[in-house]
Amino acid sequence: MASATDESLPNIQFGIMGCAEIAKKITRAIALAPNASIIAVASRDAEKARRFIASNALPEGTRAHGSYEALIEDEGVEAVYIPLPTKLHVLWAVAAAAKGKHVLLEKPTAVNASDLDKILAACEHNRVQFMDGTMWMHHPRTARMKEVLSDPGLIGPIQLIHSSCSFSATPEFLENNIRIRPDLDSLGALGDLGWYCIRAILWAVDYQLPSSATALPAVHSNNAGVLLACAASLHWDDGKVATFHCSFLSNTSMDISVHGASGSLQLTDFGIPYREDSASFELTTGAHFRELHIGWSKTPEEVLVATYLPQEALMVQEFARLVRLIRSSGGHPDPKWPGISRKTQLVMDAVKRSIDLGFKSVTM
Fold it and tell me: pTM for the full model?
C-alpha cells in the first residue's frame, strides 16, 4: 500500500493569491517541487492573472481568477500561497482556511500577534496546515548548523547572537513600494527584514523566548512613520544576549553569528544563499590568540552543505508533504510551524512596542 509520502500520490494542487514579485519565485518553486502543482492564479484583475500565467509558463489549463474570492471557492485548489500585503493577511488567510484550503503565508505573517492568532485559530479549527514563507528554514544547511549548535563540544553554551538583514533601497522603492506604506505594510523594515533576524535568533536558541526586548535608539522612519531601519537587543534570564539590525538603507547583508563558550558559528548569506546548489558556514572551535597576539591558533573551518533543490522548493515540498499526510490519513496539521511563527511575531511585537515607548525595555 502506498504511504502518504509516496511520490506516486497525486500532487497537492496550489492556487496563487496575488501576482506580487515574490509570487514568481514561489511559482518556480512549486514547479520544481516533486509533490506540488499550480492549477490556479488569482488577481483583482483576471487579465493580470492571465499575464502572470503566460509569463511564468504555467501549464495550459491553469485557471485565471479575477478575484481572491473565486480562488478560495475553486474546489480543485487544496492549498493557497498568499503573498499579499501584510495588512490583508488576516482577511484572506482566515477566508482560505474557512474554505478548507491549507495556507502557505508570506512573512511577516501579520501586523501583530492578535491578527496572527485569528489566522492560526482558523487554520486549527478547519484542520488545515499553516506555514510561513521563511525559506531558509528548509535548507539542509540549516539542519547541519543546528547539529553543530546542539553539540556541546563544538560551541558550548550560547552567550551571544547577532544578526543583520539589510539592502540599500532605490529612491523609487522608498517612495512607492508597498513595504513602506502604512496602509499595507506598516511594519516596514522590521516586518520585511527584521522577521528574518528574529527568526534566526530564536532558531539558534531552540525557540526559547527572551525575557525582554529593547529597541535601540537608532531608528529611521519615513514621513508616514513606517520604519526604514531599526535595531534591538534581546535578553534571556540565563544571561544570553542577542542583537539585530534591519534596514532598507544599508548595503545588502544577511548575517548571523552565534558565539558560545568554546566556539562560534558564522555566515553571511543565511536568508538567501549565494548559490542554489550549495551553501556554507564557518565554524571556529577552541580558538585563541597566539603568543604576542600576532595571530590566531585556528582559522575558521568552512562547512559546505549541498542541496538537490533550492530552499524555496524544499519549503514547498515540506508543506505539500504535510498536506498529503492530512489528506491521505486524516491526520492533524503539524503544530511546529504555527508555533514558530507565533513566537517570531511575539518578539517582533515586543520590539515595535519598545520603539513606540521610546526604547523602553518590554517584558515578554
Answer: 0.95
